[in-house]
């Protein structure tokens, strides 16, 4: 199963990805997590990506596409994958198609923008495994500690109010055209992301079980 999860910053892509990859035994590929891992390791790719991420801007397509295409050729993707945060521009979607990847379903998490800032400002993430929590909507069992791997949770540097605005402008300008792109290919399914996390997961399960 080859899936894409699409939606603005804070829609719940990462949160729902955790559920999907566990339920369907596929690899979770988050381009944002890959950039953050590279930055932590101080690689040239991570340092370059930081210049854009800190301002809420998309990392240039050339860097992102090369990294993604190489990642999906790894052995853990043989059973399928879920792309979380890729593609984010028409050029990225075209590159994925040109690489011969046949996508089975694109899930769009549709959320009213008024909910996003509160979700993002209250988010705490695991720098080791990428799991996302929320101080009130989805708290970890032990405050400040990742349920999955025990690492100390952090607040992402791009989760500031002014950066969130820039991320939503980038989404509107560069990523939203993908909705029409995948609708035309009859691959898009919309999921209402305003509901509680478990209800969103249930709606996604219904879609994926009928594939
Ligand atoms: P990325 O890491 O992908 O960030 P994003 O797209 O801005 O999305 P987020 O991770 O902020 O949100 P999410 O939808 O995953 O929400 P989450 O589940 O955590 O990208 C970061 C940056 O990297 C980009 O700005 C760009 O610079 C660069 N980049 C990455 N990919 C790129 C690409 N392909 N091309 C170019 N540049 C790229 O949930 C948010 C919070 O809400 C959590 O606290 C969660 O607990 C809570 N929550 C989730 N669902 C619900 C719900 N239903 N109800 C209540 N609370 C909820
Ligand atoms: Mg995410």
Could you explain the architecture of this structure?
The protein has 211 residues and is an alpha/beta fold. It has 9 helices and 7 strands, in the order E-H-E-H-H-H-E-H-E-H-E-E-H-H-E-H. The strands form 2 sheets. It has a 5-stranded parallel beta sheet. A two-stranded antiparallel sheet has the order 5-6. Helix 1 crosses helix 9 (197-209), helix 2 (31-40) packs across helix 3 (44-53) and helix 4 (61-71) packs parallel to helix 5. The mean pLDDT is 96. It binds BIS(adenosine)-5'-pentaphosphate and magnesium ion (MG).
Oligomer: single chain
Percentage of residues in strands: 5-15%
Q: What class, by secondary structure content?
A: alpha/beta
Tell me about the biggest sheet?
A: 5 strands, parallel
Query: Helix share of residues?
Result: 40-55%
Low-confidence spans = none
* Total strand segments: 7
Strand order of the largest sheet: 2-3-1-4-7
Helix count equals: 9
Span of the ends, CA to CA: 9 Å
How large is the radius of gyration? 16 Å
Mean pLDDT: 96
Which hetero ligands occur in this complex?
BIS(adenosine)-5'-pentaphosphate, magnesium ion
